[in-house]
Each structure stands twice: as C-alpha cells, then as structure tokens.
Design goal:
The complex is a heterodimer of chains A (348) and B (72). Chain A contains ten helices and 14 strands. By secondary structure, chain A is α+β, with helices and mostly antiparallel strands. In chain A, the strands form four sheets. In chain A, strands 10-11-12-13-14 form a five-stranded antiparallel sheet. In chain A, strands 7-6-8-9 form a four-stranded antiparallel sheet. The longest helix of chain A is centred in the N-terminal third of the chain and has 19 residues, at 69-87. Chain B is mainly α. Chain B is extended, with a radius of gyration of 25 Å. The chains are: A alpha+beta (348), B mainly alpha (72). Chains A and B meet through strand 1, strand 2 and helix 2 of A and strand 1, helix 2 and strand 2 of B.
C-alpha cells in the first residue's frame, strides 16, 4: 500500500504495527476467517490476537467497490479507540474461534504443500469446498454463494464514509432505513466497517427470512426488522475461482407464470428462456442451446424449492462434469438435448 | 583488409564489450534508484511475518494492522 507518512492514512498507520501476509501455509484460518476470494483483506487487532474489526470485502462487479482510503482512515481511527479501551480494560474479550490450519485440510495439503507449492488464499476456499463435495457436505447456497450483496436488500452505502447509508430501497426502505443512517449492528453483533457487515451478513442462515439491523440516527440507536426477499443470498459467482460451480456456458431468464400457463408448463417451475450462449459452449461441445430456446426440465425435474430458473437449478443441484438431459421448446417444437457441465480449471 | 570471418569476430567482440558496459551501467543505476523507490513505497514499515508483528506489538503496545494479499 502506498501511504506516505504525512498522508491521512499514513498518520494513522504509524500508530500501528503493520504486517503483510502473502502465504497462508501457517496462518490460523479459524481466527483469520474471511471470504478467501478477496484480493486484499485486513484485520485490525491486538497482540492478544483479539480482532477489533475486519476491513475489506467486495461485490461481483469489482474487487475495489468497497475499498476506499477515506473509509480506511475511519476504520484505523476507530481501531485506535478500541485499542485504547482494550488497554484500559473496558473491552470485553470475545472467545477465540477454534484454530484451523492448512495442514488440517487433507486435499489442500495434498495439492499445494504436498506438491511443493505455497498455500494461496483463493485455494483455501476452493479446496474447502472440494473437500466438502468429496465428503457429501457441500451446501452450495451457503458455501458457493458467499458474501451476499447488500444492494439486493436495497442498501447503498456512502463508501468513503464507511457504514453510512446513502440510499435505502427495497427491503431496507420497507424496514424503515433512511439515508444518513449509520449501520452499527446486524443481528445484535456490532459492526464497524463494510468488511465486518459483509462477514456477519454471510453468516446469516440462507433459510432465514428476516434480519435485524441496528442503525444510529441523529444520535439514537434504532432497530430495524428487515424482511429478506427470496434469493436474497444470490450473487453472480462467475468471477469466483470455484471448482464446485458447474460451468454451463449459457444464461437464462425465468418465464413469468402467465408465460408458463400459455405453454402449459408447470406452475412455479423453473422454466427459463435462454438469453445468451457463450462461445465456449461450441468449443467444448457442452450443448447446442440457442438464444430463445425455452428449457423447462432437467433430467425430468421441472421444479425446485430454491432455484427459480434453470441455470441456478443446474448450478445448485449438479456436480461439475455431470451430463444432464434438458427438455427444450424451440420454435414451438419440444425436444430433448444433452448438456455437459464442466469443472472450472485454473492455476492450482 | 580483414577477412570476412575475422571482421565478424571483431564486431562480435566489440558488441559484447558494449553490451557488458551497458549492463553494468544499468545495474549501477538500479542499485542507486532502488532504495529511493523503495523508500517512497515503504514510508510505512511493513513486516513480513505475523509472529514478528505480535512480538513488536507486545513490545510497543501498538495495535496491529494485518494485510492479507492474494493474487489469483
């Protein structure tokens, strides 16, 4: 990080011991838990290994969306205040999470250290999921669809000002959130930064239908009960290097209920219209779908209690490498066609 | 007049000599410039070890700012 000593951030950093970690081989992953697909992530803590806050996080659009020098300066100042409280005994220490190290993950060890390679952040998340897939413990809704987007529930932050709400729409507005509110807690857990908020939001049970957000408004603390919309946890995960995400090489848009009725398709089913086909589909001979095709069943299944479109159904319910049979309507004619999914290949 | 092979050999030796001098000059320049660049980039002292950060934090009473950097 380029931070001259006389810059606003530099002046704060001089009051810290700064350390940069680029290898995860001996890192306590249980303590330093965060979404491993972040290029940069920060912890503000003390020498007793108590974490005051996390700084970082991103969305599917960019790794930089929520990184900002002004908000970092705010976080560093708050960190100093928390450290002062810790030193004076005012801060109650939180229980330490169970330690986890790379050596505790057999698949990760085998493919990295076992091959003379170092353990990189993004590999940890991927191999954790591969291990879960191998053990039959993978819950893609929770383990693949990480770090739900606040914008899905209508929260637009004034990023340079940390957790200050710039705009509140959708579910957030319905719960009473207002521009100018400063988010201070989620489900009773104090948050100081976007990194904190996204981390705690990621822990919300995917079956949950509401959360509680606490905001500071004109000097007062206000609790807001926010109803979560369907698929509140969904984000575009294609930017993630994730081996458990089947590559499909097409995108689809769900049909409306009236469109399904017109075509005599199952009400509430995931029938969808293909809106784009990736050129990789032809290169890999994955499938022969065309834009405009309507896919209404996968291996005879037309409905799912989570997936509302065919693309999401295959991603959630199928393993990369599976070949499935699609029921398709093209030009008024019904047909079946195979689709072969692929496992993403990247440097490991 | 030198035979063609001898001329080529002489040119090759001269080229090698010039390249060597150029490389030496570049290395010398880098040796001078690198600390300056590093100084600009390293106004803040970044430790490369977590254990060392803990040790210094205990010694100084300062909090720790820990960066995890991962390039996929």
């Amino acid at each position: 990080m380029l931070s001259p000593k006389d810059s606003p951030v530099g002046k704060q950093l001089l009051q810290y011991v700064c350390a940069r970690i680029i290898r995860m081989d001996n890192v306590n992953l249980g303590l330093f838990d965060y979404d491993r697909n972040n290029t940069l992530f920060y912890f503000i803590m003390n020498a007793d290994q108590q974490i005051y806050m996390r700084y970082g996080g991103r969305d599917s659009e960019s790794q930089d969306t929520y990184l900002n020098l002004s908000s970092l300066e705010l976080a560093l100042k708050q960190g100093l205040e928390l450290h002062r409280r810790h030193t004076s005994g005012e801060l109650k220490p939180a229980p330490a999470p169970a330690p986890v190290f790379a050596k505790d993950m057999p698949l990760l060890m085998e493919r990295t250290i076992g091959n003379g390679r170092c353990v990189e952040c993004h590999l940890i998340g991927d191999f954790q999921n591969l291990q879960r897939e191998k053990n039959g413990a993978l819950d893609k809704v929770a383990h693949l669809y990480r770090s739900p987007d606040l914008k899905t529930i209508g929260i637009q932050l004034d990023v340079p000002k940390g957790l200050l709400v710039a705009q509140a729409g959708g579910a957030a507005q319905a719960a009473g959130m207002q521009p100018g509110d400063r988010i201070s807690a989620i489900n009773g857990v104090t948050v100081w930064t976007f990194g904190d908020l996204q981390y705690q939001y990621d822990k919300v049970d995917r079956k949950a239908d509401h959360i509680q957000l606490t905001v500071d408004r004109a000097g007062k603390s206000v609790d807001l009960a926010l109803t979560l919309p369907p698929l509140w946890w969904w984000t575009d995960v294609r930017w993630r290097q994730s081996s458990v995400d089947p590559r499909l090489y097409f995108e689809a848009r769900p049909l409306t209920e009236s469109q399904k009725r017109e075509l005599q398709l199952k009400p509430g089913g995931f029938a969808s219209t293909v809106k784009s086909v990736d050129s990789f589909a032809q290169m890999t001979k994955s499938h022969e779908l065309k834009v405009g095709d309507i896919v209404y069943a996968v291996d005879g299944v037309e409905q799912d209690d989570v997936a509302t479109n065919v693309e999401l159904y295959i991603k959630l319910r199928k393993t990369p490498g599976d070949t499935v049979t699609l029921d398709v309507i093209r030009g008024g004619q019904r047909m079946k066609m195979p689709l072969r999914t692929y496992r993403m290949s990247f440097r490991k | 007049m030198m035979p063609r092979d001898a001329r080529a050999a002489a040119c090759g030796r001269q080229l090698n000599f010039m390249l060597t001098r150029l490389l030496t000059a570049l290395l010398a320049l880098a040796a001078i410039a690198t600390p300056l660049l590093a100084q600009k980039d390293d106004d803040i002292n970044w430790l490369g070890s977590y254990d060392e950060a803990i040790r210094v934090a205990r010694q100084t009473g300062k909090p720790i700012f820990l960066e995890f950097r991962c390039e996929p």
